[in-house]
Amino acid sequence: MSTAAEELRAYLDEVTPALHRAWPDNRSFAARLAWQRALHLGGWAAPHWPVEDGGRGLGILDRLACDAELARAGAPDIAGVFGIKNVGPTISRFGTPEQRASLPRILSTEEIWCQGFSEPDAGSDLASLRTRAEPDGDGFRINGQKVWTSDGMRATHCMLLVRTDPGARPHQGISVLLVPLDTPGIERRPLRQITGDYEFAELFFTDVHVPADSLLGPLNEGWRVTMTTLGHERAGVVELANSLQRDVKKAVAGFPDGVADPVLRQELARRYVEARTVGLLGRDVLRALSAGEQPGPAQSVIKLGWSLTTQRLGETLLEAAGPAAIAAGDGPEVHRFLRGRASTIAAGTTEVMKNILAERVLGLPKG
Amino acid sequence: MSAVSDRNDEHDELRKVVRAFLEHASPSSEVRRLAETDEGYDPEVWRRLADELGLVGLIVPERFGGAGAGAAELAVVMAEMGRTLLCAPYLSSAVLAPAALLESGDETACAEFLPDIADGSVIATLAVAEGNSDIRDLDAVWTTARADGDRHLLFGTKERVTDGYAAGLLLTVARTEKGLSLFAVDPEAVERRPLPALDPTRKLARVHFDRTPARLIGAEGAAEGAVARVLDLGAVALAAEQAGGAERCLELSVEYAKTREQFGRPIGAFQAIKHKCAELLYEVESAKAAAQDAARLWSAAAAASEQGLAASVARAYCSETYVHAAAETIQIHGGIGYTWEHDAHLYLRRAKSSALLLGSTSWHLERVAADIGLVPTA
Amino acid sequence: MASATVQDAGTSPARQAHWSVRLAEFLDAHAGRPPRDKTARLAWARAFHADLEEAHLAAPGWPAEAGGMGLDLGDQIAYHQQMTAARAPRHPCGLSFIVAPTLIRHGTPEQKERYLRPLLRADEFWCQGFSEPGAGSDLTSLTTRAERVGDAYVVNGQKLWTTMAHLADWMFALIRTGPAGPGGAGISYLLISMKSEGITVRPLKDISGGTHFSEVYFDDVRVPVGNLVGEEGGGWAIARTSLGHERATAFLSDEFRYRRVVSELHRLAKTSGAADDPVVRQDLARIEASVRVLASNSRRALDAVLEGRDPGPAASVNRLVRAEFDQRLHEVALRVVGPDAVLGQREPTAPEGGRWTYGYLMSRSSTIGAGTAEIQRNTIAEKVLGLPSWRKEA
C-alpha cells in the first residue's frame, strides 16, 4: 500500500466512526457534505489536486489506492463531485488568479459546482449546442436551456458551455463560462427521473448577464478547455472498473445463505465474472499508466463494459430479491434496477460509445 | 489491489516469436490439410516447436528437460496457437499430460516420461471423460483398475480423448477400492478409434480398455484432487487459446467490414456492423484480460482457491466470447462466411467444441457461484 | 391441361371423396421411413411428389387452372398439418415455389403449360439466380447482363449463392437488360435452361461440408425471348410475386416442422437426463415459449387474412423471428446433447446421428440467406415502423 493511502487510512480510522454514527444512511446529500468537510479538514478532499491548489499532488496509483481506502471505510461519494473531478482541475489549468479563488471553496463545500453541458437537442452530440452568449457591454448575455444537469438543484455555480460564435463549425465557436447560479435570469427546475429521485435539473437562461471575467480559458476554445479535463478520465475509468467490482462483491455478500435457484445463481455468477473482468481491464490500464505506457483498447472498452454490466446487475438483483422487492416501494433493488437504465445513456449512450470504439479503435469508416 | 507486473517484455518477445513461426507453419492451407488426417498434426512442425522454439516442454521443469516456464508464458503461446487454429497435440502433450505427471508427485514417473514429452519425441495425453458426461464430473468415472501383480489391469471406455489416436503415451484415471488413481498405459495395448468431430482441427478419440495393463502413477486413490487441478490448468490454457481465437475473429471481421461494399459504401460504415464489432472488441479485450489473469495467478502460485476461481471465470467468459465472436464473424461476412472455403466456420467449430471440452460453461459458472458463496450449504 | 384433368376426374367416385380423406389414404399408402442414403432419399421424395401430383393432391393453395387444389385458407392449414403429422417428405425443391407464383401471375399460357406440372411433380428442379458477387444484400446493383440478339437474349456474367444449381434443370434469374435506375429498373426476369451451352456451375461447399449452393457462370448463353417473363425491364417488380396466402401458409408448414423439432428436443432432454438440470430446463422452456409465440403470431396474421384485413406487422417480423429462433433452438439443443455434441455426423455413436450439431452449423445461415438479419431489421424499421431511411442521408 502506498504511504499516502496508509496516511489516509489512519485519518479515516480516526474520523469515520463518528461520521457513521451521525449519518447512518450516508447516501443523503447532507451526509456527503459532512464527509467532504471531514475529509477536507484532513487535507483529503482532493488528494490528487496539485499542492498549490490545496491537494497533495498524488499520482494516479496513489489516488486509486486512496479511492480504495475510502471505499473500504464506507465513504459516500463526495458532495461536490463535479467541482472536484472536473471543474477544479479545469480552473486550475485555465483559470485567472481571481477564478482560482474558487479552488479552496470547492474543497471546503462552500461552492458546489454543476456542469451545464447537455441540452434538449444536444444529448449524445454536444456539437449541436445551442445556448448562446452574445457580447453585452463589458460581459456576455446568455440565452438558452440546459438539461440533465447533475446536481443542478444543489449547485451554487455552473461551468457552462455556450456558443459564442454561431458562424463557426460545430465543435468550434464554443466557450466556457463560470456562472454563479444566483445570477438574475436563471431559472432552475428539478427534473424527476424514473427512480422518482431528483438528481438532475433543467436550467433556463433568459438574458442572463455575466461579466467578461466569467470566461474560462480562451474565447471560442471551450471544446478544448473542457476536453482537457478528460485527461483525468483514465483515472476515472480505472475507478469505474474498481467500483463495479466492489458493487458486485457487495451484492454477492447480500446473499449470505447463497441462492437456491441454480438459474439465478448462475446469472449472478455471470455478473461476477463480467464485473471481475472489467476490473481486470482497469488493472491493465493502471499497470500501463504506472509503467508510463499508453494503455491499449482496454481503456476504451471499460465504460461500455461498466454500462452493460451495471444494467444487467440491476436486472439480476431485482430478480434474485424475489417478489417482495416489487412491493417494497422504492426499495434498493427497485431503485438499482431503474437507475440501471441510465448507465447505458448517461455520459454517452452505448450506441455512441460503440460508434466511437468502432471508428477510433477498430478504424471502421464513418457512417 | 496489488501492483502488477505480468505483462513484460519477455512475453511480448515470446508472442512475436511464436506468431512469426505459426504464420508460416500453420497457414489456413495446412490447417485444412491436417484436419483431414487422423493424427491431426505435422510431425515436422511438432519437432520444430519442440527443438527450435522449446515450446513443447514449456511447463516441464528444467530438471526434466523442459523450459520450466509458468502458466503466464503458456497462455501467451496458447493464444497464438488459437489465432491460427494450429493443428497439433499441444493441449494434450504440453499441458494436460505433463501437468498430470507433475501433480502426481511421482518423481520416478516424471523422470522417466517427462524428458521424452518435453523434447517432443513422445506425444502424451490424458483420458478422463466417460459416456456423455462432463469431463469435470469425476464421479462419472467408472473405468476400474484391478491389481495384477506389480501392475494393474484396466476396464472401461474413455471418450473424447484429445489426441488419443496420435498419442504414444496415455495417462488415464481409473477407480480402485481406494478411489480415483492415475495410470499410464501403452496405447498400443488398447483399442482406440479416431472420432469424426465437430472441430476437425483438434483430434478426439475413443479409447477402450479391456484387461489393459497399466502402471500406477503416484499414490493409489490420490488422483481426484490432482486431476481437478490438471483440468483447471487445462482450462486456463484453453481459455487463453479461446481468447486468441476470438481476437483473430474480430480482426477478420474488421478487415472485411472495411473493404466489402454494399449499397455504395463499406459495410463497416453501417451502425449495425459497427456495433457488432464494438461489442466484440469489449468482449475480446475482457476475454484476454480474464485469461491472462488466470494464467498470472497460476504462475504466481496464488492460493489454490483463487486459482480455481480464476480458471472458471476465464473459461466461462472466454467460451461464450469465442462462440459469439465466431458466429458474428460468419454473420458479418454474410454468404462468404458461410462457405467451406472461408475460415470462419473453422473458428466456429473450434469455438463451440472448445466450449464443450474441459468443463461446460454451466459447470464453470456453478464453480464460480460456489467459490463466491452463492451455493447454499444445506 | 392439369385443370381439365381435375374436372374430368370429378366423375370418378374415388375422386369425389373429401380431399382430406383422399390425402389420408394417400399418406397411408405412401407411409414409410425415408431412406438413409442421400441419393435414394431424394429419389424417394421426387417419387412421392410425382404421385401426389398424379393424385391431384399437390399445391393446395394454387388455383385449379394452374394444377392446384384451390383450397381455401382454412383447408390449406389443415392440409399442411396433415402432411407434417404424417412426416411426408417436403417438396425436394423449395425454390420451385418461388418461381411458380410469378409464372402463374405473369407467365404466358405457353409458359404455364410448359413449366408448372413438371415443377409440381419435382420432375424438374429450379434454382434462383438473384445474388451476385457484388450484389448480396443489395440486389439492385446486379451486373449479369443480357443483350437481345435476334430472337434470343445473350447472357454474360456470374451468379453466386445459387442454391441447388448443380441439381437444377432451370434457373429463374434477374438479369440486367437495360441501364440501372430507381426501383430496379433495367432488370428482366428470364427462365434459363441449366443445360444451355455456356453455363458453368461450380459448387461451393458450405460450413457443414455439404454442397448446397454454387457459383454459376454465363458465357454467351442464349436464352430464347419466349423465356422472358413479364415485360423486358420489368423483372424487379414481379420477382417477389406471392400467390394469395401462400407465404402465410408456407410459414405455417415451417412452424409445424419447428413444433415437431422442439418436441423431439424435449424427448431427447427427457431421455438423456438433461432436463434434470434446471438451467437447461428453463432454456427449453424459453424455446417452447418461442415456438408457441411464433405459432400464435402466424395464427394472428392468418386470422387477419381470413377476415380480409391486412396481416400487419406480425407477418413482417415473422421471418426475422424465425431465423433467430432457429439459431437459439440449436444453441440450446447442443446444451441438451451435452459433451457429445463435439462429435461429427459421421460418428455413428453421435447422439441422434449428430443431427443437432449439424443443425447448429446450418442454422448460422438462417440470419444470412435471403436477406441478412441486419437488412431485415432495416426493412422492418423503415417499412413497418416508418423510421426514416438511411439511404436518404447518403
UniProtKB/TrEMBL annotation, chain A:
Claim: Acetylation is one of the keywords in the record: no
GO (cellular component) term, any one: plasma membrane
Domain of life: Bacteria
Keywords: FAD, Flavoprotein, Oxidoreductase
Pfam families: Acyl-CoA_dh_1 (PF00441), Acyl-CoA_dh_M (PF02770), Acyl-CoA_dh_N (PF02771)
Acyl-CoA oxidase/dehydrogenase middle domain ranges (all copies): 114-208
UniProt similarity note: Belongs to the acyl-CoA dehydrogenase family.
Domain Acyl-CoA dehydrogenase/oxidase C-terminal: 220-362
A GO molecular-function annotation: flavin adenine dinucleotide binding
Cofactor(s) named in the record: FAD
TM spans (from-to): none
Native source organism of the sequence: Streptomyces fuscichromogenes
Domain Acyl-CoA dehydrogenase/oxidase N-terminal: residue ranges: 5-109
Protein name, UniProt field: Acyl-CoA dehydrogenase
Record-linked InterPro entries: Acyl-CoA_Oxase/DH_mid-dom, Acyl-CoA_Oxase/DH_mid-dom_sf, AcylCo_DH-like_C, AcylCo_DH/oxidase_C, AcylCoA_DH/ox_N, AcylCoA_DH/ox_N_sf, AcylCoA_DH/oxidase_NM_dom_sf, Mycobact_Acyl-CoA_DH
Automatic annotation (TrEMBL), chain C:
Location of the Acyl-CoA dehydrogenase/oxidase C-terminal domain: 233-384
Keyword Flavoprotein: yes
Family per record: Belongs to the acyl-CoA dehydrogenase family.
Protein name, entry field: Acyl-CoA dehydrogenase
Cofactor dependency: FAD
Domain Acyl-CoA dehydrogenase/oxidase N-terminal, residue spans: 43-121
Domain Acyl-CoA oxidase/dehydrogenase middle, residue spans: 127-221
Keyword Isomerase: no
Any one GO CC term of the record: plasma membrane
UniProt xrefs under Pfam families: Acyl-CoA_dh_1, Acyl-CoA_dh_M, Acyl-CoA_dh_N
SUPFAM superfamilies named among the record's database cross-references: Acyl-CoA dehydrogenase C-terminal domain-like (SSF47203), Acyl-CoA dehydrogenase NM domain-like (SSF56645)
Entry's Gene Ontology molecular function annotations: flavin adenine dinucleotide binding; oxidoreductase activity, acting on the CH-CH group of donors
InterPro entries: Acyl-CoA_Oxase/DH_mid-dom (IPR006091), Acyl-CoA_Oxase/DH_mid-dom_sf (IPR046373), AcylCo_DH-like_C (IPR036250), AcylCo_DH/oxidase_C (IPR009075), AcylCoA_DH/ox_N (IPR013786), AcylCoA_DH/ox_N_sf (IPR037069), AcylCoA_DH/oxidase_NM_dom_sf (IPR009100), Mycobact_Acyl-CoA_DH (IPR052161)
PANTHER family: ACYL-COA DEHYDROGENASE, ACYL-COA DEHYDROGENASE FADE34
Alphabetic keyword roster: FAD, Flavoprotein, Oxidoreductase
